[in-house]
User: What shape does this take?
Amino acid sequence: MARLARPRLGGESVGGAADGPAPARAGRRGTADLLLLVLAAARRSPEELSAAAGLPDPDLVARAEHDVAGVTATDAVPGADAVRFAADDAAVLRALYACVRDEGGQAALGVLAERELEDSAASGAYRTPAQLADLIAHLIPGSPARVLDPACGSGTLLAAAARRGARELYGQDTLPVQARRSAVSLMLTAPEAAVTVRAADSLRADAFPGLVADAVLCNPPFGVRDWGHDELAYDPRWAYGVPPRAESELAWVQHALAHLAPGGHAALILPPATAGRASGRRVRTELVRGGALRAVIALPAGASVPLHVGLQIWVLQRPEPGGPERRSVLFVDTAETSAGGGGGTAGAGRARGGGTRSASLDWAELTARVLGRGGRSRRARTPSRASQVSRTRSGCWTCWTTWWT
Assistant: This one.
C-alpha cells in the first residue's frame, strides 16, 4: 500500500479546495471519481493493472477515463457521471492502479477513505465496527434475502448482511460521497449480491418508497432536531404516533418498520436516551402495545462511537395481520462485558484534533451473551413486571421505568 500512501493523496491533487478547477483538485469530487476507478481497477487482472501503471501519462489518463466509463454506464453507483481526469492526475492514477494490483481494491478504498471520508468527529460520520455489524446481522432470524440500510454510511451493516446470505442490498445515505463509497465497497465485498445505493435524506426523500424488505439494519444519526418534523407531520410512516421534534431516533424506528414485510425484523443502534426521554413516551408505549418492539440490548461503553456511551440495540418486528399478539419485550444486559480477551478493536473515532481513541471488548463473550449463550436477560410482560426489572442495577433496565409511567 506504500504506493498509495496518504502523503501522495493528501496534496493539492486530491485534498484541495472543493471549488478547484480540475477534477483531481475538486476535493470530494476528486475522491469520489477515484472511488469509481478503484471499482473498475478491481475488475482487472494483475497483468492489466501492471500494464496500465506503466503507461505514459496521457495514455494513463485516457485508460483511467475508459475504465471509469464502464462503471458509470451501469448506474449501480449513485451520482456516477462522466469522469474527466487531468494530466497532473497521472501520479495518483498510477499509484492507485499499483495499489489495487498489490493490495486489492479494499485496501485502496481504505486509503481514500482515510483521506477524504475518514470517520471523524468533525464530519459526524462514524463507521459501525465490523464485530458489532456481524452481531446485529445475527439478531435477524432466518436468512433474509432483501436487506435495507437507510443510513448506510460506509456499508458495514449491509456487508454483514451479505455475509449471512443476503442477495439484495439497498442503502441510502444523505452524503453523496458516503453513498458512493458504500456502493463501491459492497460491490467489492459482495460481488454476488445486487447492490442499489442512493444519495438522499431517507426521512425527507425516501429513495425506496415502495421497497418491502425482509430486514432493516441501521445505525442512524443521533440527536438530530432538524429531521423534518414539520413537513412530515402527516407522513403515513408514523403508525405508532408522530415522533416529537426531539425524537429523530423514533422517526428512524418507524421508517424501518414501514419498509418491512409483515413478520420482518429490524435492528437499530440507538442511544440510551431514546428509551428514557419523556417526549417519546407515547410512541414507545405504542411500539410495545402493538408488538413491534421485541428486544432491547444494552451494549457496554466502547462498543461503538461515541465510545463513552453504552448504546442499545433495538430489535423490532412488523406485526403480521392476524398474527399472534406480542406484548413482551426481552431485555439483555451486556454492559459488564469484560475488555480484552481477543475481541479486537470495538470501534475508533478520530477526534477533531486528529487523535484516535479506541476501546477493546471481548466480542466473543459479548456475542455469546446477546445470542443467549450466557449473560443476563429478562422479559417484561406487564407494567408491574417492568417496574420490578427496572429496579435492578443494570443501566439497561433502569431506563425503562418511563415506558410504563
In short: The radius of gyration is 22 Å.
